[in-house]
Protein 1
Amino acid sequence: MPVYSLLLEYEGSRFHGFQKQTEIISVQSVLENSILIVLKEEVKIFSSGRTDTGVHSKGIIASFHSKNRIDNFYKFIKAINHLSGGSLSIHGMKEVPEKFNAQYSCTEREYEYWVFLSKYPSPLLKGRAYHYKHKLDIKKIQDECSHLLGSHDFTSFAKPSSLLKKSPIRNISKIEFRESKEIHGLYRLTIRSTGFLHNMVRIITGTLLDIGNGKIKDRNIREILQKKNRIYAGATIPPDGLYFVKAFYEKFPEIEELYKEFYKINEI
């Protein structure tokens, strides 16, 4: 039975998250319903990330098994994109080994959180970035980021109810806070990990902003980690500025090839 991987982009405000839920629109339900129409077959979609309501995707990976062999990827992608009504777009597709699963085979995930630092809002970034009007010590934020690298207990940076059956230990391999070269005042927090706890990226970003503007003065990131208590971290900022950027698969080079093809096509 062939297995296919998809590279997906979508605008998060149109969906109640990725995972299928009863009687509400999700990314998974739109994909599965569209594939049912095209292939005349019910499939189950797996994904490299189960984004929450309002969270966007620049490059999430999905996969499904099919009884049908798809010979023309272009026609399939065109049909699914049309049926989705513009709410999501498949940018690439590959047949992958039968043991591949977009969710369980994924070894690392990378997110970005966009912060627009400006006295006034940008209509072009509404719903795409978190508008932040306060002054920030950028250097201090960048220094604090280094304390998050490596393996830590992230209890302080997670929604408490989400930890009842999960280990709070996560390993961050990359984190940086930099201004965009394209848009003045737009900063991106890029963070890569083996896995994320619920609201983890939004809480980390909110905490860094609170430290950067002096709202949190009596403790730093290292001390907040050591407290292992949510009350010591900063605010959970809105989902608008959060993007799933890329999934990593150590044993499946086909996915890296899929990303490379997408980036090559979109080079300016």
Note: The beta strands are 3-10, 46-47, 56-65, 88-96, 108-117, 130-132, 150-153, 169-179, 186-193, 242-248.
Protein 2
Amino acid sequence: MTAPLEEWHDLAVGLAAWATEVIANGRPDPATSETKVNAGDWVTSFDREVEQHVRAELRRLLPGHRVVGEEYGADADAGDAAVTWYLDPIDGTTNFVHGVPWVAFSLAACDERGAAVGVVADVYRGEIFSAVRGGGARLDGRPVRCAQDAAVTGGVLLTEWSRQDAWPGMYDYLSRISATCGSTRIMGSCALALATVGGGRAAGVVLPGHYNAWDVAAGVLIARESGALIYDREGPHDGVPLHGVLAAPPGSAEELWRTWVGEP
């Protein structure tokens, strides 16, 4: 673990704490909020405020780093930056607009080796999950581990829609989970679903639908550093899968992966 990663981690945690306060105290109005890709793809003034502030701080404190955010895309003047920060100012904006308290802030720094620092803030619980590559996962600064005795049977399994649609094979997957007496939850935030596995609160998460790097980079690192295993559809994965990702403790990971891909 190198000193710069810890410095980036502390900066990211501070930005997450600031964002949590702004978002938690925000009251968006569905009548004045806007939509993007479709009528269920919301964006608010708080999404934009948080992203603008975080971008400005990263540029000020880490010149030469690149930022890619959900609302404003990639920095145009970053060139061949060695470090890219992936930012989702509010993951779960639909929940936020309608007052459902399952909303996250997500920020990850990635270098040539992949995800190096990740932070996911659970806004309404006031909790901050974080991780440094090789340094373990943390919850509000304290070490945290995935659920070592987790099992698909009787466990809580998380997934998400692909935007507002079912992902291919989703209903078959849900039926197979149900047959094991597992309980599926669809809560509305990819980042927070992954962090929840890292916090030891779920037996796994499967996200085969549409998402972007800013949705999952931080959460994947947190889950991995907590001891969880990461898979894509082909099997174990040592990076951040961008075309379907599974995170689960070692005790449930292979069974959950087989349930996802339909292998006996």
Note: The chain has a mean pLDDT of 93.
